[in-house]
Amino acid sequence: MDTLVFLGTGDAMGVPRVYCSCETCTEAREQGENIRLRSSVLIDNGSDFLVIDCGPDWRRQMEAQGVRNMRRLLVTHAHFDHIGGLPEWADSCRWMGYKGQLYAPAEVIPIIERQYPWLRNQIEMIPCDEGIELDGWTIDTWKVNHGKNGYSYAFRLEKEGYVWVYCPDSISLGAEETRLMHGADLLVLGTSFYYEAAELSTRSVYDMTEAAELLQTVKPQKAIYTHMSHDVDMRKSYILPENVTLAETGMRIPLGSSEIS
């Protein structure tokens, strides 16, 4: 059975934020329960693995897992917190003597290439819009609304009847955008705040109160919230649906089971 590993669970700025002395950031500096690296996950099949997104904390995340080589990556979109680690990965590929494989929607690839024009020397960039299969997972991808930040993409992965969805950056999704989420065994969803009071047009990611309404519509068996800002304090108890868990760094989820460790 494959295992989902949470490498990072933070929003674009991570926790603690350098300038901030709020209770969450202070605790993160002193005790560390609230430390959050930029959001990323690893799918481990026991002999190899896939990673989704490669932010600026990539090196630290790989070291924490004891991983010395990464050959394959899926990218949700080309914002810095999701691609900032690509130069380090490319350098790793160069030293290890192989070419990495990066799978991303076709419109995302040119953005990555403009940002890091030398990456193609070490990384093959492969469009995944029409669906791909990796490690027995049938993977579909589609565009989702990212609010004031434009767009992102979500991934739906299915293997041996088990379906899970990864959607870290989205807000105010419509019927077509949620179509492939319905009835998933697991939905991993970005929720930057518990409740975000800012005007909707200025925002880019669901808060947890809005996410609860989304879950009532798409009805996953389990949901895990990730991409959390310093508004979320892991020491506190929040009113959440019974099937929701807040992601923690290093948390491991058997993909094919309802167990969470």
From TrEMBL:
Cross-referenced InterPro entries: Metallo-B-lactamas, RibonucZ/Hydroxyglut_hydro
Stored Gene3D superfamilies: Ribonuclease Z/Hydroxyacylglutathione hydrolase-like
Protein name per its UniProtKB record: MBL fold metallo-hydrolase
Domain of life: Bacteria
Function: Counteracts the endogenous Pycsar antiviral defense system. Phosphodiesterase that enables metal-dependent hydrolysis of host cyclic nucleotide Pycsar defense signals such as cCMP and cUMP.
Pfam families linked: Lactamase_B_2 (PF12706)
Domain Metallo-beta-lactamase: 37-227
Catalytic activity field: 3',5'-cyclic UMP + H2O = UMP + H(+); 3',5'-cyclic CMP + H2O = CMP + H(+)
